[in-house]
Design brief:
This protein is an alpha+beta fold. The chain is 20% helix and 37% strand. Strands 5-4-3-9-10 form a five-stranded antiparallel sheet, with no helix packed on it. Among the domains are: 63 residues; 87 residues. Strand 7 and strand 8 form a beta hairpin.
Length: 271
């Protein structure tokens, strides 16, 4: 008993130290057990086969970026007229017409008819005499600038004779009753054939019938150089083709092409 009384503190301390040693030895075992338990939970909760991520659909984002990169243009004048009121003008028929360049002025001119103008060359007569055969060849220049030059004119010629329009190069068949004459045109050098039944024709220009609706004006058979007066302005026709007429303003020489519509009456046969 005396020993316990004298050394009980040491005995208690030893017991505590032994408990600590046991605890220290148990810690690795506990850690390993916890690690195994956590690994088992991980394998149970997390699947082994992981599907790869699919490609991201960026269609909406790219479309939004394109919309952002495109500037917004607000037209509050020419169409919606929010800050620029549209003036109107009363036409000759009493109807109101928008006072802009698409309804008033050269752009309001329409083509009602385009007529082709031909160069016509025909074999009209054969004259025979002691000196040989002479041929009367008629020439009609419908597109000539001067009205006096548009009438049909007859040329008397023999083989290889030349005038201001053509040269007679060849006569096929009997001289007094040829089956065909071959002519060389002076302006193009082209060789063309004519017979009594079949003349030569070539489109050399056009004339146009025009209409200006706002003032109820019409013009018939107008050619290049003709003057037109409408909308308090003077215009000249400077060009006519098979599908358009070009006007030129006398005040500033500005040109206005007028296209023929699909409903325009455009004859293609010989007048």
């Amino acid at each position: 008993m005396d020993f316990l009384k004298k050394h009980y503190e040491k005995i208690i301390l030893g017991i505590v130290l032994m408990g600590l040693l046991v605890a220290v030895g148990f810690i690795p075992v506990k850690i390993d057990s916890e690690r195994q338990e956590l690994e088992a939970k991980r394998e149970r909760l997390i699947p082994h086969s992981v599907k790869p991520l699919s490609n991201l659909d960026l269609t909406m984002s790219e479309a939004a970026l394109k919309r952002v990169s495109t500037p917004i243009v607000l037209d509050l004048g020419s169409v919606h007229r929010l800050f620029n009121a549209m003036p109107w003008q009363r036409g000759a028929n009493g109807q109101l017409i928008k006072y802009d360049d698409s309804h008033i002025g050269p752009k309001a001119v329409t083509i009602t008819k385009l007529t082709p103008l031909y160069l016509l060359i025909s074999l009209d007569q054969v004259n025979t005499s002691d000196t040989g055969a002479r041929y009367v060849i008629g020439v009609e220049k419908q597109a000539a600038t001067m009205p006096s030059q548009r009438n049909k004119k007859g040329y008397y010629c023999k083989l290889n004779d030349k005038n201001e329009v053509f040269t007679l190069r060849k006569v096929d068949g009997p001289a007094d009753n040829p089956t065909k004459l071959t002519l060389e045109l002076n302006d193009t050098g082209e060789a063309v054939a004519i017979t009594k039944e079949q003349p030569f024709k070539r489109i050399d220009g056009h004339m146009a019938d025009l209409k200006y609706g706002p003032e109820n004006k019409t013009w018939a058979n107008k050619r290049i150089g003709a003057a037109l007066s409408f909308n308090n302005e003077e215009y000249n026709i400077v060009a006519i083709s098979e599908n358009e007429v070009v006007l030129s303003a006398k005040s500033n020489q500005k040109k206005w092409p007028i296209l023929a519509s699909a409903t325009s009456n455009t004859p293609t046969n010989t007048p």
